[in-house]
Design brief:
With 210 residues, this protein is α/β, with parallel strands linked by helices. A 5-stranded parallel sheet has the order 2-1-3-4-5, sandwiched between helices. Strand 3, helix 6 and strand 4 form a beta-alpha-beta unit. The longest helix is centred in the N-terminal third of the chain and has 31 residues.
Length: 210
């Protein structure tokens, strides 16, 4: 295999550096936009803490790659990686495909009807904001009185437009990788905020009706 000459090495290095800059640049705008939503994220975290303080649980759901994020969130609440943090009740739903579109669209909703209570949190993922079964799940969760928190992508899609969620946190990017990275950041921030609020539970008493 022929080794590269000095000029070729310089060109290769410049090409690699350009590629890295481009990759980071794709994340600058969406990352800054998420930071500008700090108040929305803080509000969602506090409302989640209130529901946990009432004895509720978080129920997570999503399709495809987003299903792994949903499972991750549930595991982190159940099994905190930071020593001393309180374990909180959580479960993740699966969307097993049915025989028709109706079954598929009701997959999460049917499970929520069985498992959710008014003091619970329904936390769903939709990278394009247009997952029909996630939207339907939020509609049912709201009917049940549960808190609804959506992690969305692109422009928020039908889910944000439907106004069916209490908190819509949107990763404003068309790049699936960037959306996933921002969702990971957002739900880790939510996890931390929930624990901060619970550790200062005196401030939650009036809101939780205790």
């Amino acid at each position: 295999m022929r080794s590269l000459g000095p000029e070729e090495k310089d060109m290769a290095r410049e090409t690699a550096e350009d590629a890295v800059r481009t990759v980071f640049q794709r994340r600058v705008g969406p990352g800054r936009a998420l930071g500008e939503d700090a108040d929305l994220i803080a509000s969602a975290g506090r409302d989640m803490a209130v529901r946990f303080h009432r004895g509720g649980k978080v129920i997570t759901f999503g399709n495809g790659g987003a299903a792994t994020d949903a499972q991750h969130v549930a595991v982190e609440f159940l099994h905190p990686v930071i020593v001393g943090k309180r374990a909180l009740p959580a479960l993740s739903l699966t969307a097993e495909a049915g025989n028709d579109d109706r079954d598929a669209n009701e997959a999460f909703a049917d499970r929520l009807r069985l498992l959710a209570s008014p003091q619970d949190i329904a936390l769903g993922f939709s990278p394009d904001g247009r997952c029909a079964n996630v939207l339907r799940a939020f509609q049912v969760a709201r009917e049940l009185g549960a808190l609804t928190v959506a992690l969305l992508g692109r422009d928020g899609g039908d889910i944000a437009g439907d106004k069916v969620v209490d908190h819509a946190l949107i990763a404003r990017s068309d790049d699936p990788c960037v959306i996933k990275e921002l969702h990971v950041t957002a739900y880790h921030i939510l996890w931390e905020l929930v624990h901060v609020c619970i550790e200062q539970s005196g401030s939650l008493e009036s809101e939780a009706g205790v």
